[in-house]
Amino acid sequence: MGQNTKNMHYGKITGWGKYVPEKVMSNEDFAAFIDTSDEWIVQRTGIRRRHVAAETDQCSTMATEAGKRALSLAGLAPTDLDLIIVATSSPDYLTPPVSSQVQAQLGAHNVGAFTMSVACPGFVYALITAHQFIAAGSMRNILVIGVELITRMLDWEDRNTAVLFGDGAGAVVLQASDEVCGVRSFVMGSDGEGYQHIIHPSGGTACPPTTETLANREGYIKMNGREVFKFASRKMPEAVAAAVHKAGMTLDDLDLLIPHQANARIIEAAAHMAKLPSEKVFMNVHEYGNTSAASIPIAFCEAIEAGRIHRGDKLCMVAFGAGLTWASAVVQMGSDVAGLPERS
Ligand code: UT7
After folding, report:
1. Residue 127: phi, psi to the nearest 5?
2. What is residue 342's DSSP assignment?
3. Pick the catalytic residue: 51, 131, 197, 260?
């Protein structure tokens, strides 16, 4: 546990890293075994390909790899950490928590670790949670990971879901700082009335797996895409506007929106409603599909790689997903972060 340090109440992002499996599946690959087409997938979703885990990849190993890269950039040893938070809906096992496997694989001996299951907004929830520990003055170094090996939970015969998702992991390190930066405001929401719209029916305690559930293909994720689409198109701009307002900013103050990468049409509708020009909106759904809790940290890393995030920039991360749930956070980058360019 880190020591209390006066005024070190801001969680500066000092490291980031992503891991995506090497194997890539194109839309044409799907058209070879289900009734779909590249044209339909691109037009309705913007997705062109997605990365799919190899047999040797696990949720824990992908998370660990992203975590190692983030720690290395932050210049921290795993044992410098006070806490590891892993957001995922596709852990190696229902028990034990995958965060402990990640802690062990990192060599972060005895460091506290927990797993958060908040579907696609999981990473934003985890980032906000990490921020709270630092703001309270009780911790200094926290690793936050969003990871998903969701393709092993898909029904590869169901075109409504099979083509939409991909695997991967992304991570950030938050370090206590006295500079005003990190999570400046946030919104967390859920509406459990919509719990059936994205559901993995069998596998939990409500419906343990039996030969019957297997035969009915209830061991796979089911989704009412149309309902989720309507909910997301409404909630994303609302959540952005609310977080920006809470930060005492206006939408003009934002340098970049990093939305959950589920569907290009949802992102474009949200950007339009929030009146944000396309150069202020990051999109990589065409390359990865929907990687659920990993989508925002992967997009964050890629935005940095593309030179679209600078020192001092104000970002808004926003996500929606199963639950139904949503979250947004205005995040300000530090003014001296190594690895980030100055805004010219
Ligand atoms: O992270 C949160 C997770 N979920 C989401 O973000 C999903 C949000 N929803 C969506 O992205 C969209 O609703 C989808 C991409 C899932 C579907 O697009 P849509 O424009 O809402 O299509 P639809 O559900 O209204 O379906 C239109 C038609 C249907 O055929 P009929 O009933 O009109 O004959 C579907 O069966 O498209 C059919 N369809 C497909 N056709 C070819 C559904 N999936 C496919 C497919 N290929 N892969």
Report:
1. -65, -45
2. P
3. 260
